[in-house]
Amino acid sequence: MKIKSIIFFIFFSILVANCGGTKTPENISAEQVYNKGLELFHQGEYLEAKSYFDIIKLQYPASQYADKAQYYLSEVYFKREEYILAAYNYSTLRRIYPGSQYSKESMYKNALCYYLLSPTYDRDQEYTKKAIEAFMEFQYLYPDDSLNIESSNRIKELRNKLAYREFFTAELYRKMDSPKSAVVYFDLVINNYSDSDYYELAYIGKIDALYYMKKYDLLTSAIRAYNTNFPNGKAVNSNNNILKEISNIK
Predict the structure, then answer these.
(1) What is the rounded CA–CA span in Å between residue 55 and residue 11?
(2) Is 66 helix (H, G, I), strand (E, B) or coil?
(3) Residue 135, H or E segment
(4) How far apart are CA 106 and CA 90, in angstroms?
(5) How far apart are CA 15 and CA 20, in angstroms?
(6) Over 90: is that where the pLDDT of 23 sits?
(7) Are 165 and 125 in contact (CB under 8 A)?
């Protein structure tokens, strides 16, 4: 490396350490700062790269490299698995630089951050819901993008998680001999997650709970709804037998 370049990088190391209010010399361009940050990023030196991208934001906010620095700042947080900060910075890019070439990718990565933050079904599902909303917004704004298929797959996975949360609770109430409460949660699956893998199972669980409670009018309605939605369903035969039994009782 040439002496001039060494001096340049030593200077920036000092600048980064002191950060913030220090002004960059006039002969140091935004391009040089950005390129050094990008070089460090590709070398996996993410914290060092972040310092250079921060300088662009502070010292060159109106330059042609500002949106690029914002994007790679987001990428630094993403690579470090700091997904909350990454999501915030991706959103910041879209808000401040809506015309950026990185706007679309930042929108998808924002959704991906929430997807990666989505916890197991038994914990609070705020990030799961945010991820679904973000993926759906991406699909709405970019209906022909190749990432739409992946977005749909992730949405289905996340909605299955939400459906299973309600289904699991319903089954738990059933095991606790609380069929009335179980029906409430089976209905949450039926009414909100008809696209999930638990839709039919929720109907079957609801029918069993209503049969146990001898709520024959509600049971009849539930069976008819099941048979309509699942004409070839695995519970159709047993449902028809129940209908005959109800008819005999009445």
Answers:
(1) 13
(2) helix
(3) helix 126-141
(4) 5
(5) 9
(6) no
(7) yes
pTM comes to 0.86
Domain residue spans in the chain? 1-94
The reported pLDDT for the residue numbered 28 is 82
Tell me which residue of 12, 84, 82 sits closest to 48, measured CA to CA. 12
The mean per-residue pLDDT over the stretch 108-113 comes to 98
Q: How large is the angle between the packed helices 3-18 and 46-59, nearest 10 degrees?
A: 80
Nearest-angstrom CA–CA distance, 123 and 55: 39
Tokens of 25: 């010399």
CA atoms of 215 and 217, how far apart (whole Å): 6
- 89-103 residue pLDDT tens: 999 999 999 999 999
| From the candidate CATH numbers 1.25.40.20, 1.20.810.10, 1.25.40.10, 1.10.238.10, the one assigned to the domain spanning 1-94 | 1.25.40.10
Report the C-alpha gap between 172 and 184 in whole angstroms: 12
Angle at 88 between CA 83 and CA 90, to 5 degrees: 90
Q: What average pLDDT score do residues 208-230 get?
A: 97
- Residues in the chain, how many? 250
Query: Rounded to an integer, what is the distance from CA 233 to the centroid of its chain?
Result: 32
Residue located via tokens 């996340």 = 158
Q: What is the DSSP letter of 20?
A: T
Cα–Cα separations (whole angstroms), residue 203 to 163, 214, 226, 229? 13, 16, 6, 10
Give 32 or 6, the one with higher predicted confidence: 32
Question: Judging by beta carbons within 10 Å of its beta carbon (0-12, 13-18, 19+), is residue 27 exposed, middle or buried?
Answer: exposed
Q: Structure tokens of 148?
A: 């739409």
